[in-house]
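Two proteins, back to back. First:
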Amino acid sequence: MFKKHYLSLLLLATVLLSSCEKEDNVPPIDYAIGSTSHFELLDQHQNGWIKQGRYQLSGDPMEEFEYYENGYIKSAKVYASYPQQHLYMEVSRSEDNKPLWSKYYNPDGALWFETEYKNGLPSIKKVYSEAGTTIYTYTNGELSLVEFTAADGNSTATTTYDIAGENRNVIITSNGETVLDENYAYREQVGAGIYADSHVPVANPFGATETSYYKLNQAFSQSPSWQHDADPISFMFPYRLFDEFYNPGNYFATRFAVSTELYQSVIEQYPVTERGVLIGGGKYEDGYEYFQDNWEVRDSLAKVLDENPGLYKLKYGGEYIEKAGYGKIFFVIGAIRNLPTDSNVADDIKNIARKHMDALISGRTGITPREQEKLDRVWFEVKFFSTLKEHRDGVVINSAGDYKNAIEKVNAGELSVIQLKYKSVENL
């Protein structure tokens, strides 16, 4: 009996020793971050995370950025290679992820438009073009004034918004004389004109033309999937879509950042991504408002345009709203930063991040404690965005309850104007 007991103890010791040897032979997971052929690590925080870095292609910088120690973007410069290598976007943000300022550039290096923020809300936006300079003024984040001054200084267009009175006043001057002073509905309606090159809303020559509403009742949704850039344009409509061919190219559609505040908010939070981000969401198109029977009005306006095209375009712009689309939009972004250089380790963490985000959205069982330990090694955040003002800068989703609450607010909210589609006055 003593012999049997001794053998069983020996067997147990052998198993334990074998187990320990197995664990000792497993190499530790390499969470280190270092430079690669396309990425240069310029500086690190004490915890090993990236402080400064640069992505490059064939020696040319593509993205230069700095992270705060908590993982949020501190600053970033983003470059494009078409039509030539150039800096096209630059952002600066606070440690609690509020925007401080942003600048966008033309391919020739000239400043295109810039935005200054106050307490995380837009304060002043300036747009520069060959036609002139436009200054957008915001009050508590709401657009209150648009002032355009022509490059030659001979004309101005000023739109003052009165939220309480639900109207906007448009005053246009030429050579020191007022050529138009009219009040319109606060929200631009079908027929309202615009200076397309500077996004300046002006007068509505169509007056009280009768319109119709075309019902669509179309919905689209997509589960989060890995995408190269945090570009939500496939889930949302540009607020102003002008009468021109649009080719998105291989970088952010910065032309939409001028007037599509939700789009500007997103791309300035995620100007740089590491091996992709998770993006998913949905949109509901309720329908659009459009002209019903306005051929007589159009013919009349075409005659006025032919008689004095310069004065007409000064008062009513070169394009007008042909359709106003209504609906709802939402999307979620799961951004990951400070991924280890080891590709196998990075892919494993990305897979864990996807499972975690899926659990937040679906309410199903989440990741294991061991997987959570791995995910904690990097910066990962899920945010919910929508056309509701409270979701414009995104809300952090930490639980399935957070996601459910955000979706319920979207469903309960009113329909939004999701796109103003324009047509050239040359087509009158």
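And the second protein:
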Amino acid sequence: MIALDKEIKKIKKALSNSSDVVERRLDVGEKKALVLYLDGMIDVKTIDLGLIEPLIRRGSEIKEHVRTLEGIVETSEKLEFFSDRKSALEKVLTGGSLIVIDGVEGYAVCSAQGFMSRPIMEPPVSSVIKGPREGFTESFKTNITLIRRRFPSSNLVFKSFTVGRLSRTHVEVCYLKNVANLKVVKQIESKLKKIDIDGIVDSSYVGKLLEDRKYSLFKQTGSTEKPDILAQKLLDGRVAIIVDGSPTVLTLPFLLIEDFYDSEDYYRRPLRTTVIRIMRLLGVFFAIFLPGMFVAFQSHQYQLLPIKLLVTIINSTSGIPFSPVTEMLIALILFEVLGEASVRMPRFLGMAMSVVGGIILGETAVNAGVLSSLTVLITALSSIGLYAIPDEVGTFSVIRLIYVFVGASLGTYGILISTIVIMVYVVSLESYGVPYFAPFAPLVPSDLKDSIVKFSMVDLPTRTQSLGLKNKTRLRYGK
């Protein structure tokens, strides 16, 4: 049996006498009771009307064990019972309300969470002209609801995990059990159980810990902030990882080609989508290769350039005090710094900083004879092209720098060899047994219909074959 006065002291000590702990002492029949919760973490109205009021009114019905509260408490929120104090307080720290009654055995916790969260709105980096505008928030309950609304099916499965010794972060694994590869699901769940870290702040923490190759230049987990995109990925057999406190939901397995897709690709006409995907590919191609090739031609293979272009380059670079590679690095660093400054400055000044700053600094550097106009132009084109695939900006920026150094030292031959090495490395990668560079290596002809070229939905009757799914049928057209 619990002695309430002594128990209150032990509970306060266990919670380090924190100032946000609210304790409400009640008279329930002939007994004394305590309702304890963290300020700002619970729905006060639910606790007052569904918990405290029935306790005062029907307190005489409480027997020797706290489980008798099950027929007294008038709330739809989950009521859990514990025999030890530590387990009960863990629930309190995540937004539960603890109930302790003098002379009654056990602890009860009502999960009436009610803390503030950001409203559902369109994600700033995934805005669309056509298509759903809902975006995930930092509340995992809201995110689960957004997913459940799209799949009112018993095949949609959520499995709960707690990660982080101090943060005790709630992580949900979500998948369609009649579509997803259950071997992959078990591998993900096994890795989540093995994570031993003090705290999880964002889903990116979990993503890095779930990757097969921790030090790879290429990311191996997908991510999205939009429920409609996640719904498409779930239908394709992928597994979602939802992390409480993060608006970004992770998806596995991940293929490199996924980052070349856009949220509107499945709402446009196939021909328009194909053209746009080709433009993205060309943008990334020029972004990666232009600076390195320009340096390589200037330093080694200038004889390969057309004579008129060569004359233009010579006229542009004459009088520049730096070598081609140094000049290009200065320009790249200048644009990188401008980009970082525009992101971190106040919103209303960021645009002015990026546009006006880039124009003024570039023009001034050219007029002062520090940089050539062609170098500034190529750097600007490369920087714009990188953002054709926003999720791969970090990776492609590093590859771009590698090509600049290789082009300066080995010329175009070095860039060709580097490209082969990088391609071999990418082809060797796997994401939970799925080839990272599929459907191109290995070649999967059916998946090519939704790669760079986008076929109509009618021509895509099967799911992504590269994922090794048992349930491959997506569409039975005309049946």
